[in-house]
Amino acid sequence: MKIVVCAKQVPDTTEVKLDPKTNTLIRDGVPSIINPDDKAGIEAALQLKEKCPGSTVTVVSMGPPQADVALREALAMGCDDAVLVSDRAFGGADTWATSSTIAAAIKKLDYDVIITGRQAIDGDTAQVGPQIAEHLGIPQVSYVEALNVEGEDTLIVQRQFEDRHQIIEVKTPCLITALAELATPRYMTVHGAFDAYREKEVSVWGLADLEDTVDQANIGLKGSPTRVKKSFTKQAKGAGTILKDLSADEAVASIVDKLQEKHII
Amino acid sequence: MERAKVNQGIDLSAYEDVWVLGEQREGKIQPVTIELMGEGRKLADQLKKKLAVVIPGYQIEQEAEKLLHYGADVVYYMSHPLLKSFSTDGYTSAFVQLIQEKKPEIVLVGATSIGRDIGPRIAARLGTGLTADCTKLEIDKEDGKILQTRPAFGGNLMATIVCPKNRPQMSTVRPGVMEKAIHQETVCGTLKTFIPDLSENDIRAKLIEIIKKEKKQVNLTDARIIVSGGRGLKSAEGFELIRQLADVLGAEVGSSRACVEAGWIDASHQVGQTGTTVRPDIYIACGISGAIQHLAGMNESKYIIAINKDPEAPIFGICDYGIVGDLNDVIPAMIAKLTQKEVSI
Ligand SMILES: Cc1cc2nc3c(=O)[nH]c(=O)nc-3n(C[C@H](O)[C@H](O)[C@H](O)COP(=O)(O)OP(=O)(O)OC[C@H]3O[C@@H](n4cnc5c(N)ncnc54)[C@H](O)[C@@H]3O)c2cc1C
Ligand SMILES: Cc1cc2nc3c(=O)[nH]c(=O)nc-3n(C[C@H](O)[C@H](O)[C@H](O)COP(=O)(O)OP(=O)(O)OC[C@H]3O[C@@H](n4cnc5c(N)ncnc54)[C@H](O)[C@@H]3O)c2cc1C
Prior knowledge:
The complex is a heterodimer. Chain A is α/β, with parallel strands linked by helices. Chain A has a single domain, classed as 3-Layer(aba) Sandwich (Rossmann fold). In chain A, about 25% of the residues lie in helices and about 30% in strands. Chain A contains 6 helices and 15 strands. In chain A, helix 2 (about 70-75) links the parallel strand 6 (about 55-60) and strand 7. The longest helix of chain A has 16 residues, at about 35-50. Chain A is globular. Chain A starts with a strand and ends with a helix. The N and C termini of chain B lie far apart (about 60 Å). Chain B has helices spanning about 30-45, 60-65, 90-100, 115-125, 240-250, 255-260, 290-295, 325-340; strands at about 20, 25, 30, 50-55, 75-80, 105-110, 130-135, 135-140, 145-150, 155-160, 170-175, 190-195, 205-210, 225-230, 250-255, 280-285, 305-310, 320-325. In chain B, helix 2 links the parallel strand 4 and strand 5 (about 75-80). By secondary structure, chain B is α/β, with parallel strands linked by helices. In chain B, about 25% of the residues lie in helices and about 25% in strands. The chains are: A alpha/beta, B alpha/beta. At the A-B interface, helix 3, helix 4, strand 9, strand 11 and strand 14 of A face helix 4, strand 7, strand 9, strand 10 and strand 13 of B. Chain B: InterPro entries: DHS-like_NAD/FAD-binding_dom, ETF_a/b_N, ETF_a/FixB, ETF_alpha_N, ETF_asu_C, ETF_asu_C_CS, Rossmann-like_a/b/a_fold.
């Protein structure tokens, strides 16, 4: 089975802090990581490969040259090949243009199963997976939490909903979007890390490499239907009344009284 | 298939009206649909255009008619045996057919596990933009376009997104964020049935089994009061205290993700970026530090009360009333005080 995993390098948003003076995001010094759902996707792909001997796992990332680090990590976990889709022309892309570009890269690869994360923790849209599937004209199952192969060309997947799970059968080629619950990522081994830098290659594909599969009208900022008109940090509502050094009874009495005065309770 | 392109100088004036893509599960209309109709009505009124809601399904005409009581000018009942239950291919194809025929200007979709599956796919097939998980929608007074505001970076950043050159302008909106349309006794709009062109072979991912979650349904989005517990509870037993307080207040029980991950409580109780977004009248956070991902799901609550023994906990930065203290003392005191006063809410 030919498995392609899409992995995005993201800032660890749990480490992002606000500058209290300027009220802007402090991005300096924030570590870059493989998006958590994508890491689960990589693990699921590696497990699938173990179940189906002869399979290969190719990891694809679109981003600036620094995303090489994320791809090396994926190689160190055990992926066979890595492709970095990188070109200034791809910059400023929304999910439509991102998915058009990644789909154009995947068209140049052999694939049976494509695995993306459900959602990237920076852009947070959860749109790129389904849109890649649409651009490739293949079926998708999103929110996948368990995955099995049946025969040569059929996946049986468990999909999560708010109040239920569905078991779905889908033939390859298809795309699934992975929840973090799908698989717990393995650590890279010393040997793996060594191979990732010494033995394995990250192929870098620019616009010229995708010329026959991409429509230039659909890439980068110019090929994006949406625009960020403005961005801002949320004005914190500001601390209210904080009660310290009171006994539990006193503190509770004071607050319940205030709530009643204001007819909240 | 001819692939869509974007930014190709399309005639924007050919598109009008505000649409809501409705959602039903087992023939029951979902609350998010009514919320989107509430918001859609406001947008349509500002634009002086009509509001339509589309509901896919089979043999649910009576349920579809109920939507006429919520202020829609048109209810499109999209009827087909293959739309009885959800499938990505069936729903996408049917919605796209109707959108291409009628050309709405704005399309709102619930950011549910169904809406977030088909929304991006529909937008990609139509060749238009989609703004994810909006928390605020407004009409730009200058050019009449929709301004869509949403959180990103785990709730650290808000962005206002526009879709200037493509139609429809599409947004997904999280359940619980918009106010519901009000039920009216009288019917104002009309029901139109639309039969999409679908065949069995169009549906490539086949549903073979549904497993319902056994747990009692938690309804955080509709709760007026939520009492939430965090890692400060120390164990699954800690939630007993939370439940007691919730019972006194007639509240639902919420949780931080830390407790869900520790296996103390089911994931359906989780509030936050990757859980449920809530905006109750009162949110009581007990032993929750106030990580940005948690705040992202509850900081629109009307009154936030925090109980935490650490005076530096970030939750105190956003609460209306905070008590620095041990929850094992404060919660029992609160229960005692409330039962003694016999306050009813
Ligand atoms: C503040 C802000 C708000 C935004 N809001 C919107 C919006 O509402 N609508 C919109 O269309 N665009 C929006 N964008 C642009 C969007 O973030 C980018 O297009 C981004 O490249 C992809 O979206 P995402 O991060 O949400 O990914 P998601 O759609 O959440 O990612 C899902 C999965 O797709 C795969 N994937 C995504 N990106 C890559 C990549 N570069 N390389 C490899 N795999 C990838 C991963 O497997 C990932 O888990 C916004 C950008 C910003 C800065
Ligand atoms: C991608 C991503 C998505 C996430 N999504 C969510 C989400 O949707 N929802 C969510 O909640 N989290 C989410 N998280 C996790 C989040 O970052 C925090 O780890 C989590 O919210 C912490 O939970 P907590 O406040 O219960 O625990 P902690 O941060 O450990 O806080 C425990 C608090 O309890 C206090 N305490 C301890 N003992 C007592 C006592 N006896 N009395 C009073 N106070 C006491 C402590 O002072 C402390 O402030 C997400 C993280 C990531 C990376």
